[in-house]
Specification:
two-stranded antiparallel ribbon; elongated; mainly alpha; about 190 residues
């Protein structure tokens, strides 16, 4: 503010040109003209810093649209942003409704949303079978879930591993393996691996 008042007093004395004056104060000529014009309009108060905040937002959601969203939500408290938007578009198709994310922001500002609770994660167990101390003490079997092979046939992998060494003892495949076939796998493996 003091620098601007000194600039204007020097300008009114007309001791130097505006270009030289701006150069001495380290401002551009448009800034110098701006200070002069603001001082002429509202005196010293015109030299105060002005807010750079925009006067409005051209794409802001209108108050009427927000009220319609909140009114429909009060009628249907379990509906989310996408469902509210779909209903309002269906009922009033000529209105240019905002995006579903904006619906969500409006509901959040009004305190009508329940943020998802973060799931508590358990720490991974690095030794799931710590009580296993020797090979062949415990075997693990698993049906891995099917997948399609290159020729389009269904493959249902079935694996048996040793819990101590993580050695893959058997890997079989087939569609819908019956219990009797699994029992045959185990009988054969007992004779092969003990």
């Amino acid at each position: 503010m003091d620098q601007r008042l000194q600039f204007l007093s020097s300008y009114q004395k007309k001791e130097m040109s505006l270009s030289d004056l701006c150069r001495e104060f380290g401002v551009s000529r448009p800034t110098g003209y701006s200070w002069i014009n603001r001082y002429k309009e509202v005196a010293p108060e015109g030299l105060l810093d002005r807010s750079r905040k925009p006067h409005g937002c051209s794409h802001a959601t209108s108050e009427a649209a927000e009220n319609a969203i909140l009114a429909l939500r009060s009628k249907h408290p379990s509906w989310g942003a996408r469902k509210l938007k779909a209903r309002l578009v269906k009922v009033q198709p000529r209105v240019n409704w905002p995006a579903a994310s904006t619906f969500g922001n409006i509901l959040h500002r009004a305190g009508l949303t329940n943020p998802k609770q973060k799931k508590r994660r358990t720490t991974p167990c690095s030794k799931p079978f710590s009580e296993v101390t020797a090979p062949n003490q415990l075997w693990c079997m698993d049906f891995k879930g099917y997948f399609s092979t290159g020729d389009g046939t269904r493959c249902d992998p079935f694996t048996i591993t040793d819990a101590h060494s993580r050695y893959l003892i058997r890997c079989g495949s087939g569609a819908n393996i019956p219990v009797s076939r699994v029992q045959l796998f185990f009988r054969k493996l007992r004779t092969d691996f003990g």
